[in-house]
């Protein structure tokens, strides 16, 4: 009997919460420093890249997640900037894009990861 294994949903949820915390921290620091031109997404991208590299190197899932997250980030940033200040729009778009990227990554990893044999003991 074989089963597919990929990224557990619970682990993806934990990384999603960390991503939102990183977005909030970046927003707070950049707002205090009045540095609205600096990228809010940098800490989140570094967090996700480190998690990917250290724990789950599913390349197809990573490519799908990067594409989906980028599209969401660009679309939401364009939609939010006319209504919010720049830093808030970028932070909101980044947090939503990280969530979409994690859902895509987890889903694709569970579909494409190699099958493993379950032990019957």
What does this structure look like?
The chain has 121 residues and is mostly helical. The mean pLDDT is 87. 74% of the residues lie in helices and 5% in strands. The protein has a two-stranded antiparallel sheet with strand order 1-2. It has helices at 9-33, 41-55, 59-80, 86-112; strands spanning 2-4, 115-117. The protein is elongated. The two termini are 13 Å apart.
Largest sheet: 2 strands, antiparallel
Compute the average pLDDT. Answer: 87
CA radius of gyration = 17 Å
| CA distance, first residue to last residue | 13 Å
Percentage of helical residues? Answer: over 70%
Question: Helix count?
Answer: 4
Strand residue percentage = under 5%
Order of helices and strands: EHHHHE
What structural class results from the helix and strand content?
mainly alpha
Number of strands: 2
The low-confidence parts are: none
Please list the strands of the largest sheet in the order they lie side by side: 1-2
Overall body shape:
elongated
Note the quaternary state here. Answer: single chain
Key traits:
single chain, 121 residues, two-stranded antiparallel ribbon, 74% helix, elongated
Secondary structure topology:
Elements: E1 2-4, H1 9-33, H2 41-55, H3 59-80, H4 86-112, E2 115-117
């Amino acid at each position: 009997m074989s089963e597919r294994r990929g990224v557990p949903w619970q682990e993806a949820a934990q990384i999603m919460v960390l991503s939102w915390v990183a977005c909030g921290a970046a927003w707070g620091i950049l707002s205090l420093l009045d540095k609205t031109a600096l990228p809010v997404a940098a800490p989140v991208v570094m967090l996700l890249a480190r998690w990917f590299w250290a724990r789950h190197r599913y390349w197809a899932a990573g490519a799908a997640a990067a594409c989906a997250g980028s599209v969401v980030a660009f679309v939401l940033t364009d939609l939010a900037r006319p209504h919010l200040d720049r830093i808030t729009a970028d932070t909101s778009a980044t947090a939503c894009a990280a969530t979409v990227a994690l859902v895509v990554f987890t889903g694709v990893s569970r579909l494409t990861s190699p099958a493993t044999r379950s032990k019957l003991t």
